[in-house]
Amino acid sequence: MPHEARQADLIVNTTPIGMWPHTQASPLQRSSLRSDQVVYDIVYNPAQTQLMTEAKLAGAHAIGGLSMLIGQAAEAFTLWTGQQMPLLDVKKGPSTASRNQIRFVASRLNFNGIPTIVTPDQTPPDLTPHHLRGRGFRAL
Q: Interhelix angle for 66-81 vs 87-96, to 10°?
């Protein structure tokens, strides 16, 4: 496969190779890559995979899987709630949140059966994920 990979313009890793906890694994080595390639690793944990590191060291353009995960989540959110997912908030998410702060977005059906979105800034302080159970909420 290394020879075939070297001939490709776009390489997409759709395997779990390199996903946590096996973060040092890579389906390809730097010698299999060219500087004018695009390498898209669907793995999102860790954000910087060994394959992406190898690609960058070879001079290729490396893309991680977090954007696909967020895109899939956005589509699922819309299917379940009928609303658009707040992508800017999601993309800021963990990187801007304090390590000691729990941030979540929850939805529930209001009395008319219409989904409503509750974001962390609208959530009463006593309404934590633990308190959501039994109140018609589901974590998103």
A: 130
Return the SS3 of 46: coil
Phi-psi region of 128 (alpha: psi -120 to 50; beta: other; left: phi over 0): beta
SS3 90: helix
* pLDDT at residue 30, as a whole number: 96
Query: Is 0.70 topped by the overall pTM?
Result: no
pLDDT tens for residues 91-113?
776 554 433 333 344 444 444 44
Sheet containing 38-41, strands listed edge to edge, beginning at the edge strand earlier in sequence = 10-13, 38-41, 61-63
**Widest distance between CA atoms in the chain:** 60
